[in-house]
Amino acid sequence: MNAPAYNFAYLDEQTKRMIRRAILKAIAIPGYQVPFASREMPMPYGWGTGGVQVTAAILGPDDVLKVIDQGSDDTTNAISIRKFFGKTAGVATTTATADATVIQTRHRIPEAPLHAGQVLVYQVPIPEPLRFLEPRETETRRMHALGEYGLMHVKLYEDIARFGHIATSYAYPVKVNARYVMDPSPTPKFDNPKMDDCPALQLFGAGREKRIYAIPPHTDVVSLDFEDHPFTRYRFDAPCALCGAGDSYLDEIVTDDKGGRMFVCSDTDYCESRQSAGHRGSESAAPHKERAHG
Amino acid sequence: MTSVAELPAGFADKVLSAQSTFRSVMDAMARPGSIQRIGSVAGTPDTMMRGTAAIALTLFDHDTPVWLDTRMSAKTDVARWLKFHTSAPIVADSSIAGFALVADPQNLPPLDRFAFGSNEYPDRSTTLILQVESLANGPTIELRGPGIDGSVTLRASIRPQDLFERLAVNAGLFPRGIDVVLVDDDAIVAIPRTTRLVRGG
């Protein structure tokens, strides 16, 4: 720790106590958004201030932290948050999903299965799944109190009426423990099934909107759907161009201005560990080319 | 009358002790029925167990009204210790308490004396911290609910013996309800409002 001017993990102790109490309530009431007194953080709203506050409140010196942004360990947001906690808490950091005890994520759930003892912290922009259907907080709060979620089903139905299928592809609403409808943050709906019966604890922090919510381990998480239009995952129909994976969520990368494109795993750790295990895709560098650069 | 200097100490390392205690409580709440240990050391006034004292130092402050049962408030030690170390207001009205400390669970008041929260704000409820006889020996209690893979069994001697029958109100009240943390020395078990008794208790 080389910044003695800060408290451990940046936040002051009173703030941590307040956030910790909110986290305990959130775990006790799965899917319910607990209001909390979100602080200003040394980064702008939209960069994960909610996730950072949750991480700061739970992090201890023995934790190993991983931070991903859209599945990637090496984007600006992921690197700066990892460095932030490296500096203010002196914790070890990693990019390997299996080695991490706390994983802060923006908009993805890692491909590698999570295990008990891990905590997944989501950065959430808009925690209220009903917000775009009903702008008034007083009304959405009452709808949650009454378990009145017809409006959300109407929204999904309108998708079907307009497009012939449920066109919602990210932030796909889920029902937690058969009670609260919850926004899983803007993760692709490909990731929704991973939230169900997950052995790890999942915590969600929304800094600007001042809400914390949670899914305890081994909790039922069901994506909303209809009998005749069941929930489906979506994935580009291609293998990863770098590691050949046929089961991972893919990013589309435009490679030229003539319509050329390639698909690669969005989870960089998953892709890299597959490549180091010898898996190759159509765009992998040939061994002799790598030597020529060496 | 003890002076402030004679009060039992708080955490030696406020920051890291509070963090490790919180993680134990968080793990307990996330995995109901599992026994978690509290490693941090703090002085304990009179009727307070180690676990209770650590939880108080970790979670209580001026924002959390605390209610003490008759045994906890029999002498002024506990209230004075809490006030000095946490600044938490001690309240006589249990229905506005954020936390309730119970050293004599045999005489636990009816649960509806505590706050269940409202349907709009179910988080505005009382968390009961109950000091029990044993979390290692006693009748077998089988629990299920979120946080539990299938079901979990706990061997514990808990008073009041009908605690889980009383907590059954949580099923009908949800999302309102009462969360409970059972404490036996440095061992804790959490029973959040979503946990249901399968058998035993």
From TrEMBL, chain A:
It catalyses: alpha-D-ribose 1-methylphosphonate 5-phosphate + AH2 + S-adenosyl-L-methionine = alpha-D-ribose 1,2-cyclic phosphate 5-phosphate + methane + 5'-deoxyadenosine + L-methionine + A + H(+). Pfam families: PhnJ (PF06007). Belongs to the PhnJ family. The lineage of its organism: Bacteria, Pseudomonadati, Pseudomonadota, Alphaproteobacteria, Hyphomicrobiales. GO terms for molecular function: 4 iron, 4 sulfur cluster binding; alpha-D-ribose 1-methylphosphonate 5-phosphate C-P-lyase activity; metal ion binding. Catalyzes the breakage of the C-P bond in alpha-D-ribose 1-methylphosphonate 5-phosphate (PRPn) forming alpha-D-ribose. The keyword Membrane does not apply. Residues 280-294 have a biased composition (Basic and acidic residues). Residues 273-294 are annotated as: Disordered. This is Alpha-D-ribose 1-methylphosphonate 5-phosphate C-P lyase. Keywords: 4Fe-4S, Iron, Iron-sulfur, Lyase, Metal-binding, S-adenosyl-L-methionine. InterPro entries: PhnJ. The keyword Lyase applies. Its EC number is 4.7.1.1. One of its GO terms (biological process) is organic phosphonate catabolic process. It comes from the Bacteria. Coiled coil: none annotated. Transmembrane segments: none annotated.
TrEMBL record, chain B:
InterPro entries: PhnH-like_sp, Phosphonate_metab_PhnH. GO terms for molecular function: lyase activity. It holds the Pfam family PhnH. One of its GO terms (biological process) is organic phosphonate metabolic process. Keywords: Lyase. This is Phosphonate C-P lyase system protein PhnH. The lineage of its organism: Bacteria, Pseudomonadati, Pseudomonadota, Alphaproteobacteria, Hyphomicrobiales.
